[in-house]
Amino acid sequence: MAHKLLRKPHMKIRLVVPQLATVFLVACGGVVATTDDAPDSSAGTHETHPGTGGTNQGKADAAEAADAADAPSPSSPSSPSSPSSPSSPSSPSHGGGCPELPGPMMVQVPSSDEETSFCIDSTEVTTEQYEAWLSGTTSTADQPPFCDWNTSFEPNCADSGSTSSGPNYPQVCVDWCDAYAYCSAVGKRLCGARSGGPTPYASYTDPNVSAWHYACTSGGQNAYTYGPTYTPHICNDQELAPVASYPNCKSDVPGFDRIYDLNGSVAEWEDACDGNTGRWDTCRTRGGGTYGIIPDKTTKCGADGAGGFRGEGVSVVGFRCCWP
Ligand SMILES: [Ca+2]
Ligand SMILES: [Ca+2]
After folding, report:
1. Based on CB atoms within 10 Å of each CB, which residue in 38, 137, 163, 273 is the most buried?
2. ∠ CA 19-310-319, rounded to 5°
């Protein structure tokens, strides 16, 4: 694909280049900063959207590193419905009080408040699961008004990536509305606010508000699922791999300990957008970090690149669903 220039009303322009690098520009010439939460303010701004990968060189470096280190096996036996999990005597049976619905097994996260108790997919939605839905009867008719431009749920990469690496890989190259439609169709919802509805765009790092952030931080305790400080390669900050193939990429906190890849692997659409006008709204993408682009920042629960356009799927952004 040649360079593609997409223009958004409100004067924001994003230039997508084939190397998966995404640069946000504003009309005045500035770069829209990606953001980290406070502890990493030294990171400053960077042009690479954590959710949209980095450069070919970055990928090459990551591939080499993966070869030399702990690259996950493509033949990982992990299953989307039963992620490889060491037995945890402190854990109740899988799923807790969550209903059995299509897609990844859900986990009920602990909450002191029944009003904000929720279930979350244990992994990102896989290609196999997404295709199973697509192969059924799907209609684009019943979407919210800000998705009325979306005439297809077929994965479509706005970058040079591939829509699929294999059945147990996370589904990528879906736009926000595709992800929203999938979750709704299987009886779940795209993860948003714990109390229901979307996460306000500015509240994505508030564990009292954002379901995704609450799950990732084990209820606000940790900066990463696995603890307070970054540890390389616990989560997938390398090449794309099947879901849950990094068995320690999860929390040790009971109740949160069966949710995989919130850090690393593909970034995940959140129901947290800066407007309801349509395809050029910017929506949060959470928990990316494949291809080793400053993984201490990009895999962090509080990391967020300015987000992605609602109407644009890319090869390093997937999603997971929540319930109810
Ligand atoms: Ca679509
Ligand atoms: Ca992820």
Report:
1. 273
2. 75
Ligand sitting nearest the alpha carbon of 156:
1
Q: Evaluate whether 105 touches 97 at the Cβ level (below 8 Å).
A: no
- pTM higher than 0.85 for the full model? no
Rounded to whole angstroms, the Cα distance separating 12 from 8 reads 5
Query: Which ligand ends up closest to the CA of 270?
Result: 2
Neighbours of 102 (CB within 10 A): 17
For the domain bounded by 54-293+309-324, which CATH number is listed?
3.90.1580
Rounded Cα–Cα distance for residues 114 and 71 (Å): 40
Give residue limits of the domains in the chain. 54-293+309-324
- For residue 301, the CA-to-ligand 2 centroid distance in Å is 10
